[in-house]
Amino acid sequence: AYLNEMLISQNENEMLVQLSHLHTSPNSQAPVPALPEKGGKTRHGIIPEEIFQLLYPKTGVTGPYMLGAGLLTYILSKEIYIINHETFAAACMGTVIIYGVRKFGPDVAAFADKLNEEKVQKAQEVKDLAMTSLAQAVLDEKKEQWRAEGRQMLFDAKRNNVAMLLETNRRERVHMVTNEVKKRLDYQIALQTLHRRMEQEHMVNWVEKNVVTSITPQQEKTSIAKCITDLKLLAKVQQAKATV
After folding, report:
1. Which residues are CB-neighbours of 141 under 8 A, at least 6 positions away?
2. Which listed site, 9, 99, 129, 178, has its alpha carbon 20 to 30 Å from 72?
3. Backbone angles phi, psi at 62, to 5 degrees
4. pLDDT tens for residues 15-68?
């Protein structure tokens, strides 16, 4: 049973391969020829013109008719076909059919051509509508492709804007840090200046206090007398300069 299943599957694979080759042959990909809108020329309603054109080079103009008459005579003489009442009925029916075709054929053909033209017109309208919609779809696709290309530029612009914002924030933070550091340094400088000024004032006050406390009353009286003597001496000098 296993061998039978293997053989069946192998045969199916071979058939699929053959079918694939058949459907992918160059002939299957050839375009289908267009059907003719009107039939070929005929004589007597049913005999194609090609038969007459085929026999003319060998039998002349009367050859096809003589062939038909001889074939009919042979069939009747050999009683291959026997004339009976069905023959007359068929002749009558054929006469009526030929009369009907000759009488009403042009009108029926015109009506059929009108219906065919209406169908062709409707098909052409559908085709034009489809072509218009497809052309619009192509334009829309091209527009979308153009938008997709512009989207890359938009992304680049947004990326540059984000980079500029980040750089601006970085510089603002650097400026803020610089100001804070400067404030702290100014505070330290002001603190050191205050310490130095307070030390100087303390030193001056201390020296002045020590100097004041080191002066005795006798020294103070001596210095006051010395000052008075110096003032008198200066007064005399000024008077002498004035009299001169």
Report:
1. none
2. 99
3. -85, 0
4. 555 545 544 555 556 676 776 667 778 887 778 888 888 888 888 888 888 888
Separation of alpha carbons 11 and 19, rounded Å: 12
Tens of pLDDT, residue by residue over 166-201, are: 999 999 999 999 999 999 999 999 999 999 989 888
Question: Two tokens at 88?
Answer: 């007359």
Give me the mean pLDDT over the 228-239 stretch: 80
Give the whole-angstrom CA distance, residue 109 versus residue 39.
Answer: 12
Portion of the chain with pLDDT greater than 90, in percent? 27
Task: Output the six-digit token pair for 96.
Answer: 């009526």
Asked if residue 75 lies in contact with residue 81, where contact means CB atoms within 8 angstroms, the answer is yes
Partners of 47 in beta bridges: 43
Token pair in block for residue 143: 């527009």
CA dihedral 77, 81, 83, 87 (to 10 degrees): -150
Q: Are 49 and 40 in contact (CB under 8 A)?
A: yes
- Residue that has been written with the tokens 């071979």 in this structure: 14
99, with CB counted inside 10 A (0-12, 13-18, 19+), is exposed
